[in-house]
Amino acid sequence: MLVMGGALLVTIPAFRLILKRPRPILAGGFALPTKSALDVRLLGGATMFGVGWGLSEFCPGPAVAALATGLTPVFAFVAAIMAGMALYGWTFERPVRGAAGTEPDAPQGFRSYRA
Predict the structure, then answer these.
(1) Cα(64)–Cα(79) distance, rounded to whole angstroms?
(2) What is the pLDDT of residues 48-89, one digit of tens each?
(3) Total number of domains constituting the chain
(4) pTM for this prediction
(5) With 0-12 CB in 10 A as exposed, 13-18 as middle and 19+ as buried, what is 81?
């Protein structure tokens, strides 16, 4: 709870300041979520994430850092994360490319704000 509370103490004010900018520093515009309802895909993904975290005893971020240990279970876990992301991308995300030299459109379910 302390980690989550600390993250929220930083994130909430930072988001308010950042969204006042006309655009992100390294992008042409903000892409903010438009959906606010809970649906089956969100709940299923959150459940799979939680079960994976609980079974592996690894948070994905520190697992990437733990690759430096050279332990086989860490590599297996990170490989499973990568495979899951690739499978999701292949199954649900079809890349939408803009014209040559332009940025792709915002992902489905996101609203693009461009300056």
Answers:
(1) 10
(2) 888 988 888 888 888 999 999 999 999 999 999 899 889 888
(3) 1
(4) 0.54
(5) middle
